[in-house]
Write a structure and sequence with these properties.
The complex is a heterodimer of chains A (213) and B (501). Chain A has 213 residues and is mainly alpha-helical. Chain A is built from eight helices and no strands. Chain B is of the alpha+beta class and 501 residues long. Chain B is built from eleven helices and 25 strands. The chains are: A mainly alpha (213), B alpha+beta (501). Chains A and B meet through loops of A and helix 10 of B.
Chain lengths: 213, 501
């Protein structure tokens, strides 16, 4: 890795902060000026996952109940990754049919850049949670919720900019994407239950054969 | 040969591993005494109470076997049992060495009254003045007798326009307060407790159970046909099953008929503590509401929630509820935290077939079993006594001693949440906030943790106020200073007089 590409990476990562404060301008430049990189997007996603897991351990027990016996870190990470993948694929699949200018990779980069507030805010909430009492619970709750709303708004704004959609069309396609995610989940469930039934059929067939032989 | 040896060794090893693992799992699930942790998981516990003796009619030296005994009352060291099926009342005395001896039995009363024989007496209560009150169910009356069983007066069917005049009065459970007012649970009356003044006048209903009402049910009923509506459950309050007057004059009532859903949604209450106004003042600050077992699935032929049939409250505000469904006793403290649960259905000592009443003398418990026709006497174990002492010392303000007792209880039972929280509270009261925090955090007690943390934070700020001010000043001054230095430097560098041409 040479110095130039490292600098480039660092610059694109810092650009996430600019996107956070200037969503419309920032996300326009993200794809049109090619200021966003996969490396930076992956870094933001990784940070989000790390912060989400770290929260379990370092947030005060007042705000999070972790039943460690029942916790699967990978499933827990999946609770971010899976919807993210559905969102990216669903959004791309829909918008590409309706004059969306963004490509699949660009949707991914923009969505990841939109997640920036989550690690930033939640990181400082971890120590904060340890110096408040139950009476001051609301402060934590409001800030925590704000970080999520912030992410949501950024992602919606990002989609509008990279697809070059008007405001109304953007909202429409946000809702449509959510439906697309539901449809995909439905098909996945259908697929898995079909596959498991198919496998069960062959297993019982094999068992039957073994009994007869 | 060697291979055979190896095989046998491996087999026996496997067998031991399997056997021991089976034993450990059984020990976890079949613990006689247990408790729930923060997550609602069952935690095995050393016994809190242990069976000292089981008294049946032979042990007590009675001629006839008891028949379906229903009620029990303890005052001083005397224990009264209503031998309902034999229409008699047995008066017993708790003596030395945990013995019970029959003082007398009686099945009829003296004095100026028409019906002298008792008919299915279901409950008995003694006032402070020594007068005896008997719920004489079969004769549709509550009797008031003096200590020599002379008839004084009787309480009849309440005269109230809302009651069916043809209804037969069936008083089943009674309690008497210090002014000899009578509170009665009567079969077929669901408006609450029937309250009589000391002169025998019915003065109203107290503490009606609220109706478990759901607006979805209401909408369904609007659309249902007549036939469907009749099949639906009615929105009627359930009858109380039993009541108990505690040492302060508050009445504990239990309700054994609520559905699991209502209990879990806290729409129905299994236990209530009524004040004089008839409103519920039971504190429910525990992790789970007061309704006994958390797990209501089918097990051993019993399913559904715990059905509380009687309750008794010790002088240290620990109250025990008796579950007739699974034959268990649940102890709760004044904050609604479960202290212990023990028992089960069966024929062994310490297990019940159909328990109907629970009473206490001191810290000892007596449980009446109506099918086994016996009285089981429980005494607290070392562990139980330690916990009781810890609670009583805390109430007295001896936090140091209370902490020691909780520490001992924790040594005896490391799974005991109350010990950790008790120890934390003792530390909190002694202003040792750091230690208190540790114990509260271990058992997820956010409320107490916050109380301790507030003080801890205050103390920390007070101790370090100097450092905090210095750090804050530095934070403001240093960037400011650097800015100024830079500015001056810049001015010097760009000043005209230093310009070198």
């Amino acid at each position: 890795m040479n110095r130039e590409s490292l600098q480039n990476y660092w610059k694109s990562l810092k650009f996430a902060l600019y996107c956070m404060t200037h969503p419309l301008d920032g996300f326009w430049d993200l794809t049109h000026e090619k200021k966003g990189t996969y490396a930076a997007a992956n870094t933001i996603l990784a940070l989000t996952l790390i912060i989400r897991v770290a929260k379990l351990r370092f947030t005060s027990f007042i705000f999070n109940d972790v039943y460690w016996e029942d916790l699967n870190i990978f499933l827990y990470m999946g609770s971010i990754l899976f919807p993210l993948i559905l969102w990216v694929v669903g959004n791309w699949a829909l918008t590409t049919l309706f004059d969306g200018k963004g490509r699949l990779g660009q949707v991914y980069i923009a969505t990841c850049y939109g997640l920036t507030p989550y690690p930033l805010i939640q990181f400082f909430l971890m120590p904060f949670s340890n110096v408040v009492t139950v009476d001051e619970k609301e402060f934590y709750g409001v800030i925590s919720a704000a970080s999520l709303v912030f992410c949501g708004l950024l992602i919606v704004a990002a989609m509008g900019q990279i697809h070059e959609f008007s405001f109304g069309k953007n909202i429409l396609f946000t809702i449509a994407t959510l439906f697309a995610m539901l449809v995909m989940i439905f098909i996945l469930m259908l697929f898995f239950s079909m596959i498991s039934q198919g496998i069960a059929y062959f297993i019982s067939l094999a068992k039957e054969l073994l009994f007869r032989l | 040969m060697k291979r055979i040896f190896k095989g046998i060794a491996a087999l026996s090893l496997a067998a031991t591993v399997f056997a021991t693992s089976a034993v450990t799992t059984n020990a976890m699930n079949d613990s006689y005494t247990y408790n729930y942790d923060y997550w609602g998981d069952v935690q095995a516990s050393p016994d809190f109470y242990t069976v000292r003796r089981v008294f049946n009619h032979q042990e007590l030296g009675l001629q006839d076997r008891m028949k379906n005994p229903q009620g029990m009352f303890a005052i001083g060291n005397k224990l009264y049992v209503c031998d309902t099926g034999n229409n008699r009342i047995i008066e017993m005395m708790a003596g030395e060495n945990e013995s019970l001896s029959v003082v007398k039995t009686f099945d009829s009363i003296k004095g100026d009254v028409e019906i002298k024989e008792l008919n299915t007496p279901t409950d008995i209560a003694i006032s402070e003045d020594g007068n005896i009150f008997i719920a004489d169910k079969g004769n549709a009356r509550i009797l008031k007798l003096d200590e020599n069983l002379n008839y004084l007066m009787q309480f009849d069917v309440p005269v109230d326009s809302t009651l069916d005049p043809n209804m037969i009065f069936q008083p089943s459970k009674i309690a008497v307060d210090t002014a000899e007012r009578v509170y009665c649970v009567a079969t077929g009356i669901n408006k609450g407790l029937v309250k009589y003044e000391s002169d025998g006048v019915f003065s109203g209903f107290v503490g009606a159970a609220e109706v478990a009402f759901d607006w979805t049910d209401y909408i369904w009923k609007k659309f249902a046909t007549q036939a469907q509506r009749e099949k639906m459950e009615d929105f009627v309050p359930t009858e109380y099953e039993n009541l108990y007057m505690d040492y302060e004059g508050f009445i504990y009532v239990v309700n054994g008929n609520s559905s699991a859903e209502d209990l879990k949604a806290e729409k129905a209450k299994a236990v209530k503590k009524l004040n004089l106004m008839g409103s519920d003042i039971l504190v429910q600050n525990g992790e789970y509401p007061v309704y006994g077992d958390l797990y209501m699935g089918n097990g051993g032929g019993h399913e559904g929630p715990s059905r509380f049939t009687d309750v008794t409250c010790l002088e240290n505000d620990i109250y025990m509820c008796l579950d007739r469904n699974r034959g268990r006793v649940f102890g709760y403290d004044d904050q609604g935290n479960m202290m212990f649960a023990f028992g089960g259905n069966g024929n062994m000592d310490g297990y019940f077939r159909y328990p109907t009443a629970i009473e206490h003398i001191g810290h000892d418990l007596y449980v009446l079993d109506s099918q086994d026709c016996s009285i089981t006497m429980f005494v607290p174990t070392d562990f139980g006594n330690t916990v009781y002492e810890a609670i009583e010392q805390f109430d007295l303000g001896n936090y140091d001693r209370s902490g020691e007792c909780w520490q001992k209880a924790m040594d005896l039972n490391g799974n005991y949440n109350q010990a950790y929280i008790g120890l934390g509270r003792a530390h909190l009261r002694q202003e040792e906030y750091g230690d208190a925090l540790e114990y509260f955090e271990l058992k997820y007690d956010a409320e107490n943790y916050s109380k301790a943390y507030k003080q801890y934070r205050k103390g920390w700020v007070q101790d370090n106020i100097g450092i905090i001010i210095v750090v804050l000043l530095l934070l403001i001054l240093v960037p400011n200073g650097i800015g100024r230095v830079k500015q001056i430097k810049h001015e010097i560098e760009t000043a005209d007089i230093f310009k070198v041409d």
